Amino acid sequence: MAKLLVKQVRSKINCPLTQKRGLEALGLRRMGQVVEHDSNPAILGMINKVKHLVSVEEVK
């Protein structure tokens, strides 16, 4: 299974509550923080909700 590196690149200030909760569910608490997740439908769905706030890289 592929791994994804998710980095928060934009602030969650002034975002809807659902997007703030999506960032917290991904484990992102502050700008510039990077977390690693397995690529599965649940994680991809969370990333899709906040795609304008994060950058995603695939790790091999």
Automatic annotation (TrEMBL):
It holds the Pfam family Ribosomal_L30. This is Large ribosomal subunit protein uL30. Part of the 50S ribosomal subunit. CDD domains: Ribosomal_L30. GO terms for biological process: translation. It comes from Flavobacterium silvisoli. InterPro entries: Ribo_uL30_ferredoxin-like_sf, Ribosomal_uL30_bac-type, Ribosomal_uL30_ferredoxin-like. GO terms for cellular component: cytosolic large ribosomal subunit.
